[in-house]
Every structure is written in C-alpha cells, then in structure tokens.
Amino acid sequence: MRRFNQGFTLIEIMIVIAIIGIVVTISAPLLTEYVKKTHRSEIAGLLSEQAQLLERFHSQNKVYSNATGLSAGNEYYSIVPTLADQSFLLTAVRKSDASMAGDKCGDLTLSNTGVMGMNNAAAEMTSKDCWGR
For this UniProt entry, which segments traverse the membrane (predicted)? Predict the structure, then answer.
C-alpha cells in the first residue's frame, strides 16, 4: 500500500492566519502600554536620583539654585529643572520625536517636598497609575 502525504488545505492555513491575526491585534496594545510603563519607571527613577543630588547640594550650600551635574534626561524625556534658593521642581518633558510623545500620563514632575505630579495627563490618570507608587 502506498501512502500519500496530503499536507494542509487552503482553508486550514487561512484559519491559522486568522487566529494569529486576532492574537496579535489583542496583544499589541497591551505590549505597547507595557513598554511605555517601563519608560515611565525609568524616568521616575532618574527624577528621584536628580532630587537626591539636589538635596545633597542643598545640605552643603543651603540653596538649590546654581546646582550643577543635573541630568538632561534620556531618549524619551528631557528633564527641565526649575531651581530657586529654597525649592525646586523637576519636570520630565516628553520628547516630541520619541515613542512617549503621546503618552497618556503627560509630563512627570517631582518637587523638593516629594510631591509627584503630572502635567498634561489624561483626566482618568492618577499619580499611582503613572508613577507606580
């Protein structure tokens, strides 16, 4: 007896392709949000580091203004410091040409009192959603 390999039919291949398409359609937004959450976590850590640097500078010089050695940010955010003698505000501004430009958390802020905030964030977003704390 001879046995023939028939392989897959066109219908079977189309069903597999449709299933793969559905899985990708469902998972792509979740993956994108996970990547954005990672970038927000990275900049939140960098803002905390910069705040610690400013606190060390303040303990030595009694002012925040004229602090040196601050980071400019990373490939997704620029850090803009607003320094006064007795206060500071660090703002992580989304770069317009990076993948975080349309992020719903907006620009992250950190003050000398430890207040973690957001500028230009979507109305439903909370500090815990964006800062993870």
Answer: 7-31
Structural domain containing residue 23? 10-131
Would the pTM of this model clear 0.70, i.e. be above it? yes
5 found inside a domain: no
User: Tens of pLDDT along the chain (133 residues)?
Assistant: 566 667 788 899 999 999 999 999 998 888 888 888 899 899 999 999 999 999 999 999 999 998 888 989 899 999 999 999 999 999 999 998 888 888 888 999 999 999 999 998 888 988 888 887 6
**Does residue 1 lie in a domain region?**
no
Dist. CA 24–CA 5, nearest whole Å? 31
Nearest to 54 by CA among 12, 114, 129: 114
E strand segments, 5-128: 77-83, 88-94, 107-111, 116-119
Residue type, 60: Q
Is the residue at 106 inside a domain?
A: yes
| Residue 119 DSSP SS3 | strand
Number of structural domains, the chain?
Answer: 1
Instruction: Check the CA dihedral 120-123-128-130 and report its sign.
Output: negative
What CATH number has the domain bearing residue 99? Answer: 3.30.700.10
